[in-house]
Amino acid sequence: MHVDKKDEALDGVKCIVNTCHYHVEGDYCSAAEIEIQPRNATTTEETDCATFRPLHEQSMR
Ligand code: SF4
């Protein structure tokens, strides 16, 4: 899933994953949208951001 990186951070989202392409200073996310998985998760640890992209990854297109 290709998601655009915006100039502004996503309102109400704090993310400390500083190795993500979308992470911005202050622990914000600059992705246009994010998707969290999986359905039917039962613990905090089980959930993941599916929008995550490694910081130094080249274009995926
Ligand atoms: S895409 Fe997900 S992992 Fe990356 S900064 Fe945004 S919320 Fe964090």
Structure report:
- The protein has 61 residues and is mainly β.
- The chain has one domain (1-52).
- 0% of the residues lie in helices and 13% in strands.
- The chain has strands at residues 23-24, 28-29, 36-37, 48-49.
- The strands form two sheets. It has a two-stranded antiparallel sheet. A two-stranded antiparallel sheet has the order 3-4.
- β1 and β2 form a beta hairpin.
- It is globular and about 35 Å long.
- The mean pLDDT is 93.
- Iron/sulfur cluster binds at residues 13, 15, 17, 20, 22-23, 29, 31, 34, 49, 51-52.
Topology as a string of helices (H) and strands (E): EEEE
Mean pLDDT: 93
> How many E-type strands?
4
Helix content: under 10%
N- to C-terminal distance: 10 Å
Number of helix segments? Answer: 0
Q: How many strands, what sense, and barrel or not for the largest sheet?
A: 2 strands, antiparallel
Radius of gyration: 12 Å
Keywords:
single chain; 61 residues; mainly beta; 4 strands; binds iron/sulfur cluster
Task: Please describe the topology of this protein.
Elements lengths: L22 E2 L3 E2 L6 E2 L10 E2 L12
Antiparallel strand pairs: 1-2, 3-4
The protein binds iron/sulfur cluster.
Short description:
The protein is mainly beta and 61 residues long. It has one domain (1-52).
